[in-house]
Amino acid sequence: MKKTTFFYCINFVTIVLLQSIGYSQVGINTTDPKGIIDFNSSTLGVVYPNVALLGTDDATTVVNPQGGPIAEGTVVYNTNTTNNGLITDIYPGIYVWNGSEWVVHYKKRQSELHNQTTMLRTEANFSGGYQDIPGLGISDAKTFTAKYSGLYRIEVKTNFAGGKTESNSSIFVSQAKGQFRFFFGGTPYFFETTAFSAYSNYINSGKYYEGIWKESYETNYVTLTAGTTYPFSLSFDAYDAPGFIGNGSTGPTKVNLINENFESYTVVQTYTPDPECPTAGWVASSAANQCSFCTGKTLNINANDNTNCQQNATAKMSFTPTVNSVNISFDYRFREKSSNYDRFRVYLHDGTAQVGADLVNLVNTSGNTSYYGSLAVVAGTTYTLRFEYVNSSRGLSASVDNVKVTEVSGPISNEGRGYIGNEVDCQIEFTYIGE
Questions:
Q1: Tens of pLDDT along 241-253?
Q2: Are strands 50-51 and 75-78 parallel, antiparallel or unpaired?
Q3: Do residues 426 and 420 make contact, with C-beta atoms less than 8 angstroms apart?
Q4: 111-249+415-434 — its CATH code?
Q5: Which neighbouring-strand residues pair with 329?
Q6: Of 388, 365, 366, 384, whose CA–CA distance to 375 is shortest?
Q7: Is the pLDDT of residue 14 over 70?
Q8: What is the pTM of this model?
């Protein structure tokens, strides 16, 4: 039946064209064509040939019936999707051949570029492990809101360079190395990078070659939902660098004021006892439902979806800085109970009042990630880092691990330290590529 219908349709169009051979225009459903061919209908559309292109450079799937190359201006509807991370990737839509490639028409567009804001000198022995990339770090609270539902390409462009190497009486070459950690929507993506620095004793009585940039790319494809906002961040962990001055880091001494993984820990807290709850406030144990980066024992609290359990507990970890700035990092997970009031909050307290804004404040919102930030403090003052959990009815749980509070002191030297960003900053680019 389809072949017969198609046969008659071809014949109809052929007759129309033959009848109009003496004229310069052809009209279908009209006797007054306004162009070389005029389709007149208020309810019907023109259906282009459906083909599955292999890419925008595909010159073989569509053929010229007269032989030879595809005619410029050939129009098709592509049904295929490729996501190879190449500029030739395609998605469903109308494409026109321009003589060398297929060009998409009526393209849905969304592209956002987020840049590093200032240079970062990395440290191989950084106390928090990962250092935030300025303007793109966890503390910057960056987000991306998808305009469309469908496939997005996320490309992380990074630059890394080594610092100053050791020297000798000849030529010395060393390799610096580290790992980027890109968080998107709570999912971590890791990729490594390397860079080389050198020293030559034969040039100008000794010359260092440092800051030689190495560019790296990490491309991920994710399916997003229109109108949804996704948090993201970028940080870097510089590895130890043998052969570099100071093993890749020179300058201030790192001091751990708190370095706790809760394997052996006595919890200090204020809480309201409730025998209906599975835990007596915060406890250090190997409980289930831990955060993604937590191992072994954690500081955790559990209401277990119990109607009668009403937990209200605040764990306190004290420290006294000797300088006016500290770095704070920790991993955490909060499992909220939908439609019930439960809360997880982390903040700094100086014994009289809260200091600064909340580090974390989740109310009826789940979280499973890491925190890192630098906070201003007053040297000699005793502070407490407080983890507060509030559950008025049928809450679930929270867990915390790998809590570090560190300070640095002493002179800073740039000689042995690695570098990230400078002339070309780290960038994160989000691009919509189709359904």
A1: 888 888 888 777 7
A2: parallel
A3: yes
A4: 2.60.120
A5: 372, 404
A6: 384
A7: no
A8: 0.54
Among all chains, which residue has been given the structure tokens 């570029």? 113
Q: What is d(CA 130, CA 229) in angstroms, rounded to the nearest whole number? A: 24
* Cα 188 to Cα 232: distance, rounded to the nearest angstrom: 9
Where, residue-wise, is CATH 2.60.120.200 in the chain? 256-409
Domain 256-409, CATH number (from 2.30.42.10, 2.60.120.200, 3.40.50.300, 3.60.110.10): 2.60.120.200
pLDDT band, residue 107 (cuts 50/70/90): low
Give whole-number Cα distances, 263 to 239, 266, 296, 404, in Å.
26, 10, 7, 14
**Distances 431 to 158, 222, 244 between C-alpha atoms, Å:** 17, 10, 39
- The residues that bridge with 173 in the sheet, in sequence order, are 198
Neighbour count for residue 119 (Cβ, 10 Å): 12
Model confidence over 361-397: pLDDT tens digits? 998 788 998 998 889 999 999 999 999 999 877 778 8
